[in-house]
Amino acid sequence: MINRRWRARWNAFRFPIDAEKQALLRARWESLPNELRTPNQLAGRHLTHCGFTTGASYCSFRCTHCYLPANANEVPVPSLTEMKEQIDANRRFQGPGGGLQITGGDVADAYWRNDRPNELIEIVRYAVGVGLVPMLMTHGQTLLEHPEFFEALVIDGGLRQVAVHIDMTQAGRHGFPIGRVESESDLHPVREAFTKLATDVRKRSGLPLELAHNCTVTERNIASLAEVVRWFLADPARSQIWRILSFQPEANTGRTIFSQNPVTPAIVWEKLCEGIGLKIDGSAFIGGHPDCNQGTVLLVDQIRGDYFPLVPNDVKTKRLLAKILAAMGAISTMTTDASASDSLFPYRVAGAFARHPRLALRSGARALALLANGAIPLRFLPALATRRAHTINIGTHNFMDAARVANSPNDWVARARLKACVFKGAVKNSGTGEWEAVPMCAMNHSRWSELYAERLG
Known about the structure:
By secondary structure, the protein is an alpha/beta fold. The protein is 43% helix and 14% strand. It has a nine-stranded mixed beta sheet with strand order 1-2-3-4-5-6-9-7-8. A two-stranded antiparallel ribbon has the order 10-11.
């Protein structure tokens, strides 16, 4: 066992970056519009895109901001063979270590209600087997009510990441009727229930399970958004489980009941900074087009609960990080290792820096300078030295309205956003039989309806 562990560490050091991934990233970089090939661009340097499946479309909820067509619950669940074909196509587009969202409607809900839970476990297992990192997208009610299903997905399927959508737009969550939920704070018991569930599964399995929190933002919940962020950051045990907080300003697409006074990404980001307690540049680094997302990464001390932003504001550090991205951005940061206590990521980083010694020296010198000027607080050193610190990603993902996607031939910004999209799923073209990487905004505009028409025959 010990020899196998050290062999894995040694291999991670010797081969930190996959050649196939590098080639796909180069192609992705060349496909970007010239104006988006900027030093702070992550697409083509760190990621090709995040993939998704067009799986089971059923969902027991009736949310006010559902982006799927009205007939989603009538569409049959795709066969296991079809799902494996989708996964293979996503793997060709993304290369090894790519993130794959297992989604459609609420797939956990759909497979459980159709008495096919083992099929979803096999889908997750297959995605892991071909070298992707699956993330199950769910409202989570089925997993809360059937924790044995959740545990089987983790232990038997190899699931390491689950994104749970929790917000005031949801109609159908047991014990929390939409008409009685007046603030996002009213849903903290739901968030706490998932925290406990995931913590229990981690303890029993010893596996590095992580959660992501998705939240649609409308005029109803914008006022309580900062409180959601504060709730997660108030206890480091929570942010150790919930590693991504993703907020999506509402888009006028699908079955959405659009707000009379719709929120904007700028307002949402302002509220997130209020919750963090810091004014942060959310566009210091971008994935794809700057209009599509904003975000930051916080480093959290697991003992004290303190945190500070890892994404720099000073020019020198930004330039250095851009060089690091260009040289070794292909290193996967995804949770793929078998043991929660033995991540291979540090060995990959060490191996990559060993191939770039001058960059390693510059990075070390810059880190000392940041410590000296207080940008990296000295009080974090004990947590870093004892590996009692973790990161949490907080950001927005801004979908386009269906009307704007429809008008993209006449809207150069919309065209650029679609071309640079970092959230694309493999969809087979019914006319040519070829697989295409389709942006989610294009799916929301028309491709879901087209796909459902095919499946309904």
